[in-house]
């Protein structure tokens, strides 16, 4: 196992044969859930996660507050190189009938990017973006998001999403310097088949427009990406 290293963030060739983690969620109240997890990729990095999710009625709808704090550093021999990062983020989502309106902010501090296990996705508030994770050194990002459930128009199973994410203050000395920027626009439409022998089969179309001002040799470059997903959930009981 190794550390994901886009844009040369870490020594991606360094390997470990042990990944361990421990943690859990605690329902403080029907509205509030507290979270803590600790993870170690032996001799590469260690990470602590603190978070909470709060759901409560506000006016005619409900507000979800999702707070996430990741604190990471080297572990053991630190074969992947220096690791020093704090990632603090808050995502607010207001649900009103078939509509969801979201806004979030994430800020990274410390000397490096936030590490995560190669081949996985970092569980940050920008999860689901197609072209970048927005966790470069010193990066600050904000996002706005809109989701719509077409059951409100008599079309159960059909859902849509629009999102815009913008990051700045990025430090990549070997890939353009300081105060670099990146942004991504996402659109998604998905449909889960209803009441047929293929009930549970989902079709999803996603498109992203990604731009940055990094040097040409960066892992993430300007692109327009289209993905078509076919998902099937089979319930045994």
Class derived from helix and strand content: mainly beta
The total number of structural domains is: 1
Tally the helices: what do you get? 0
**CATH homolog superfamily:** Porin
Give the overall silhouette: globular
Query: Describe the biggest sheet?
Result: 11 strands, antiparallel
Encode the helix/strand succession as letters.
Answer: EEEEEEEEEEE
Q: How do the strands of the widest beta sheet line up side by side?
A: 1-2-3-4-5-6-7-8-9-10-11
Give me the count of strands. 11
What name does the CATH topology carry? Porin
Q: What is the arithmetic mean of pLDDT?
A: 94
Fold and architecture overview:
The chain is mainly β and 237 residues long. It has one domain: Porin, CATH 2.40.160.10. The protein has strands at residues 19-27, 32-41, 45-58, 61-74, 84-96, 99-109, 140-149, 158-172, 177-192, 201-212, 223-232. An 11-stranded antiparallel sheet has the order 1-2-3-4-5-6-7-8-9-10-11, with no helix packed on it. The mean pLDDT is 94.
